[in-house]
Amino acid sequence: MAHKILELRNIRKAYGDNVILDHFNLSVNENEFVTFLGPSGCGKTTILRIIGGFETMQEGKLLLDGVEMQNLPAHKRPINTVFQRYALFPNMNIYDNIAFGLRNNIYSNVYDIGTMNLMAEHGFEEEDIDALAKILSRIEKSKDVKAYVLNKFETESAYAKAEKRLKELRHHDGFKKYRDFKSEIADLFQSLSLPLPDAFQPDDSFKTVEKTILAALAQTDVYYQMMSKIKGRHFTEDVIHGEVLKALKLVNLEGYEDRDITSLSGGQMQRVAIARAIVNKPRILLLDEPLSALDLKLRKSMRLELREMQRRLGITFIFVTHDQEEAMVMSDTVVVMNGGKIQQMGRPEDIYNTPVNRFVATFIGEANLFRGVYSAPRRLQAMGHEFKISATDYRPGEEVNVIVEKSCFDIGLPELSRLQGTVKAVHFNENKYELEVEVDGTTIAVESDDKYQVGAVIGLSIAPGNIYCESKQEDKAKLLANYEGANILAGTYLGNQKILLLGKVFKTYLTTFIPGEVVDAVIRPEDFDLVFDEPEKAFLHGVVTKSVFSGVSFHLWVNVDGNILQVEDYQNAEVGQEIGLKIDSYEIHLMKVGDEEQPPEIRKVREEGRKMEQEEIHEAL
Amino acid sequence: MKRFKGLAVPYFVWLILLVVVPTITMIVLTFLQSNGTNLDGAYWSLDSYRRLADPSILKALWNSLVIAFWTVLFCFLLGYPVAYFLSFSTHIKNKQLFLLLLILPMWCNSMLRIVSWLRFFSTDWLSPLNLVGTNGAVIFVTVTTYLPFMVFPIFTVLEKMDRSLIEASSDLGVPAWKTFLKITFPLSLEGVSSGVIMVFLPAATGFAISETIGQGKVRLMGNLIQAVFEKNNYNFGSLLSLLTSIVILLLVGAVAGIREMHKRRKVHHVNA
After folding, report:
1. I need a surface site. Which of A346, A477, B146, B233 has the fewest CB within 10 A?
2. pLDDT tens per residue across span A582-611
3. What is the nearest CA distance from A89 to chain B, expressed in angstroms?
């Protein structure tokens, strides 16, 4: 069984009455890439900050290697963080940013690393080095490590022993010439098990003998040499220099040491932030949505890079994101969170294929979707009613998509509930009843433990934490900005997470469309995979009409049933060659299309929706 | 941008009428001997420049700089902690109110405040200390007058500072006091230098405080210039004013230069 590096037990965090995390339990294995996935306000960043030591909690325990650490301040935890906006120090260049922790942390392992390097240089056996490293890793402060190492080397050092003995002899009155203390020197060398130097004259003074012996020992005694290096003024800076260069190499930024932070691109800043964290050799690296500030193209390549880096470093990564694609691509384990609770945890493919509850399905799948207006802080106007919600990151008046999963409705007496509705249909599904409830003309899917009769009037209420909002504004412009040069294809949403595109039916993770609605599907050239063997058996196939080499990859124009698709790949295909194309369903992004291109029935539905929305806004005001 | 160029015209007119023309007039006046601004019977002369050799002028200039220096220092020592705690405190809910309290005294006429201090120093309790007429009293009153000018720019810069930098430093294992020295303070230097300039300028050139609190015993450049102008000697007065401006410009230039150098500095302790 894998070693549990981190355990979170029964964590509870609340601001007043607002419970962020409740009974949160989780254990993380060593060398694992764990992702917390969930909408904003689900508590994922809070849990990360609790692990990092930036937030306190009301209840619960944090265990690192089985030892409680919840009372340690952030600077004493062997955990480093890559911040969302990188938080690089603008008053320093890249080198100083990366060196910052090693230079200023009183618990830094500069002396540990330096000692190991020195011992390796001086030809010590690996076992001896490891044995000492183990002891040193138990010493907390780096100045204590230094003291321990120096003390340890001193007990081994022939030079130190000789120096001490000679000092004693010097104070002996009778010892003026070599002949007076010849036998003492012989004893000394016997105790050091070194051959006796016989180059001395009987008349040599004490000083000459002392000087010669020490000079000779300094030449041969490795412990003395290592000690003088460790005591040297530049020792720590030399070690740091080596470590910083190694870290820069790891993030592919060799030669950037002297650059200013302000001269870097987003991707480079990202790498510096990672280098600054991993140079301290943390046990766990926390990453707080580090890719969200990058454009999509860069984000995608950084995903793979981060994944690869994690494997190479063998450090546990805990990654936080709201982007399910990111989570799916990078993680060993995905933890889907909502309302401060873990909804599902498992391998990405398991979560994708068998979501355990409706939220997970929504977040990767399907639930109730309403239009609403964020009317005031923590207030949502939807379906003609005002709701309390936990999300705070919108502007009052901003239009939002509201998602409520089926199981999140509390059914109660109509007079005591916010919403009143009539049960229109009841289905039995996996030990639960699925009700279709009509509320003010809108049909809502509700999951219930109890059976209700068709025609019964029931009350529905929703806890603030169960309402998930999504801004509508970011839709098109933002998507297109990220998808420069992408293929935009006309398609039709068929409902049930299927779309019709290029004459084929594709799966999609998106649900926010009306069946029959015309949509634009956006697929980036690099998202296609080429199939060379038996292309006609691939889902899509076509003929290459043009091929351009960009210096890094090949840009292909592929004619698929009369549609020209842009494809980018590292492999080339000849013009005229028939090739197959594959695309993962989560890489097909859908955009809303204006009314004029919609079939009449969709236009009608939309108009009604807008009218209702207007009325709602009107009522809200 | 080009379209809005016209909007800058009023300012340029203002600048020419009230800065450029007077400056040139002053420069011309220094080479003349005239009766005030009345040019009848005026003649070219370098008399004003000869009078610069008077040791009392150098002494007044030196006095001004010393008083301004101590004022800046005390304003910094008092103002930085205020700005820091105001900006970083998690307990203060209404920071604006505290800032308001800080500038509240400025709503009262400054002359009134200065005279109040004078009366206060002359009360039965304090008069045995003989504060009136000392450099210390002048510095004290100057500090109380200009302290907000130090607090505000520092507070503004600290408010703008990304708090995640401090978290990042803590995350890298650096204790709080070291984080302050290595991150917070260096990043607030821009505010400090603005504050220094904003306090130094009025402290070095003002004359009301030294006149009232100093009771003629503390002679600064401002007092000297005022006295010369009162004697209707616009020629020498102009020269002294220009001289003061030049010295202060040089000093402010030096502060700005240090700030610029600090920005461009590339720290390198690497011995590769």
Report:
1. A477
2. 887 767 777 777 777 777 777 777 777 777
3. 7
Contact A575, A613 (CB under 8 A): no
> Structural domain tally of chain B?
1
In chain A, which residue's Cα lies nearest the Cα of B185?
A91
The pair of three-digit structure tokens given for residue A168, joined into one six-digit string = 């004693």
Q: How close does chain B come to A279, measured CA to CA in Å?
A: 10
ipTM of the complex: 0.79
Say what the pLDDT of residue A203 is: 78
**CATH number of residue B251's parent domain:** 1.10.3720.10
CB contact under 8 A, A237 and B271: yes
Cβ separation A104–B173 shorter than 8 A: yes
Cα end-to-end span (Å), chain A: 59
Give the residue among B179, B165, B151 at the shortest CA–CA distance from B85.
B151
Pick the CATH number of A365-471 from 2.40.50.140, 3.40.1190.20, 2.60.40.10, 3.10.129.10: 2.40.50.140
Distance from CA of B82 to the nearest CA of A (A): 23
Instruction: Confirm whether B51 is domain-assigned.
Output: no
Residue A8: partners with Cβ closer than 8 Å, 6 or more residues away = A24, A25, A26, A27, A47, A50, A51, A60, A61, A62, A63
Domain map of chain A by residue range? 110-238, 365-471, 476-604
Nearest C-alpha neighbor of A423 from the set A390, A386, A456 = A456
For residue A573, the tally of other CB atoms under 10 A from its CB is 19
A476-604 has the same fold as A365-471: yes
The CA–CA distances, whole Å, from A280 to A1, A24, A69, A159 equal: 27, 29, 19, 34
- Domain A476-604 belongs to what topology? OB fold (Dihydrolipoamide Acetyltransferase, E2P) (2.40.50)
Tell whether B256 is covered by a domain: yes
Give yes or no for residue B72 having a pLDDT over 70. yes
Q: What is the pTM assigned to this prediction? A: 0.64
Task: Name chain B contacts of A79, Cβ cutoff 8 Å.
Answer: 171
Check A73 against B170: CB less than 8 A apart. yes
Using CB atoms, pick whichever of A85, A90, A258 lies closest to residue B266: A258
CB B251 within 8 A of CB B200: yes
What is d(CA A535, CA A555) in angstroms, rounded to the nearest whole number? 18
**B6 within a domain of the structure (yes/no):** no
